[in-house]
Amino acid sequence: MRAALILVLAAVVIRTATGPCLAADLGAETSAPVAPAMFTGDVRSLPIVPPWSPGSPVREGPPRRNADFGNLRLHPLGKLPAPDPLLELQHAATTRALGPRIYSPPELDFDAQGFTGVVPPDTVGDIGSNYYIQVINGGTGSPFTIYDKGTGGIVAGPFALQSLAPPGDPCAQGFGDVIVLYDPLASRWLLSEFAGNGNHLCVYVSRNNDPVGGGWVAYDFPVPEFPDYPKYAVWPDAYYVSTNESSPAAYALDRAKMLAGLPATFQRFVAPPLGGFGFQALTPADLDGGPPPGGTPGLFMRHVDDELHSPGSNDPVHDFLELWQFHVDFANAANSTFSLAQTIQVSEFDSDIAGIVEPGGAPALDPIREVVMFRLQYRNVGSHEALVGNFVTDVDGTDHGGIRWFELRRTGGAWTVHQEGTYAPDAANRWLGAIAMDGSGNMALGYSISSGSIFPGMRYTGRLATDPLGTMPQPEVTVVSGAGTQTNNRWGDYAAMSVDPIDDCTYWFTNEYLPASGLWKTRVARFRYDPPTCTNAPAPSCGNGVKEVGEDCDGADSPFCPGLCQPGCTCPAPSCGNDVVEVGEECDGTSTAACGIGGSCKSDCTCMVCGPTPATGCRQAAAGKASVRIKDDPLFDTKDLLTWSWRKGDTTLVSDFGDPVTGTTRYALCVYDASAAPQPLVEAAIPPSGTCGARACWKATATGFRYSNRDATPHGVFEATLKAGGAGTAVVAIHGKGVNLVPPNPPLTTPVTVQLLAKTGSSMQCWQTQYGSALANDDVQFRAKGP
Questions:
Q1: Where are the beta strands (DSSP E) in 464-610?
Q2: In which residue ranges of the chain is CATH 2.130.10.10 found?
Q3: If you average pLDDT over residues 235-261, what whole number do you get?
Q4: Buried/exposed 711-744: b ≥16 CB within 10 Å, e otherwise
Q5: This prediction's pTM
Q6: Out of 98, 338, 683, 775, which residue is the most buried by the measure of CB atoms under 10 Å away?
Q7: Which fold has domain 6-528?
């Protein structure tokens, strides 16, 4: 379903660190509900993506929009070489005497998915209760592979992400910029890429905790611009997404609806762009551990090098982190806000870095200097909240890449810098960082490494919670050394450091490296700080009535497991017709209450707008001012007709019609008669919002709404007029025709009742005429005029 974007004016408040509030009317956009598709099988039934064969085409992966790499001049600001102000603190920590290493060498260290003919792979992975999933860019879609958490062995895959989309859908041609996240609050998986054509975010949410056999719910979110470099985050009230568009964009996807497998909307804001970077995007905060305090808005961040972004107004000893807040209200988009909450001073850093050197004069690699790297990790520690992130910086003014990392904290007030550091212990370049904090407050930082004598490889370091602030003093570990160089300068564009959601101590790091062939490979390393340095979180206890991380549900009821919770604390595989409302079902069997007032459950476990009997209390037209014609042509379905005119009716306000433009109200023309045939005889649904041809199907008028759809999909209605007014002036007119219309077979048994139902959530409005006699009623048509 293509979502129509509607502009909702909202004041976006930008707060500077020292100045007054500046109101910027940037506007908010909200989409129509996007109906999901269901993949109900086992992923092992999907076709395996074949390995790349030598001699097959090699192409550049999804190009970053407005990226300026390759056009940088060395030190365009004419700067003099200067050391990073935090570098000496790290050097002192690196050279001081250390005791035995207190984190383990990698417990697992294995090659994962290999070269796919695309540069870069955009390597990303995440760890759940039982599996590790890695996703990369591919030549024909994005392959994902599911690994056993204990052994690292392949359980399933690689499969193309696009194979989870329905045939013919734009997402059935995926193109990359992949993401995988485990949602610890719901014990679900999220996978995403963008489509190969058009502007689409393709999002897949597992139906339960089992990514192998539990099934997936597929969403195609059409967005207003190409959603380059999308980064996702789990938050209680939404899945938040950032993209690189003409201005940095922030999205909120309706997580609650997506977890239930129901039609879901998104809301969108943009931030003002910065000077200096062509490519730029915010990064959303993704949580590990428990949820933030209730009502905490989604958090987004970017770094600001004032010498580069605001030349002439620079602070010579400070640069900044901007922290943005997204408060989303899916019930009323006008209440949603996106604001610059804080501009936080940090130590000076240098984002003017022209490239990462490889051995032998090979092309310099892209430093990905423009963004706070994926993930910006959030933790609610209890005594405080923490944000942990990193980005690349030139540590000495000679294009020497190092990792600037930081930990911000908040205790009921503003966010402040708890610690920050720059990791560059020698002359090699370190970049493409991925950082995380475990449940005991320790950290691990993984990255790529390269120099004129070191081939691009993978390493990591870390710090204990008790180590001196601003330092990563733990010994550096080589995951895998490179052995070759790359002729394409694209690298990354990101890596992933994840923390096991069950023990909250074990790290999983994935990235790329270059073997002797120069064709990248990906690798996964698992490691942890030795006990008691990190204390394992309590294991989930199935049956204690408390839903914990790693459980779909627990006890008889769970908001993430509609229906019955199985003894293993897993959600049952959805089954339409078992009288239990499960993920992806609006209703089931006789569970009509799930459809709200006036609705009933159809055989495919979706709700009807029309009930099995006519609704009561409907508005009536003036005497003799309502007419109906129903024609079932015996030879040509294209000549079938259904028209209903309701005029000079009871008082109707514009608000009584609901909101067909933004898609919050469902409509149907319902026809009933007095026969023993199943009722209603007709339910001609008129979907809200959407596009019909190149225009929106619905538009607001001075007195109501008009609907126009030449294709007459899905149920034959091609035109509708809803006109509000006082008693004797209101009008409702519906016109349907063609092959999509399924009229009843006349003659009909009087009295015949025709109603228009408008249903918004559990509330309903209706307009009605009952015809006790007919002007014509034969085997071709029924025609009548109101009493």
A1: 477-480, 496-499, 506-513, 521-528, 600-601, 607-608
A2: 6-528
A3: 96
A4: ebbebbbbbbbbbbbeeeebbbbbbbbbebbbbb
A5: 0.81
A6: 338
A7: Methylamine Dehydrogenase; Chain H (2.130.10)
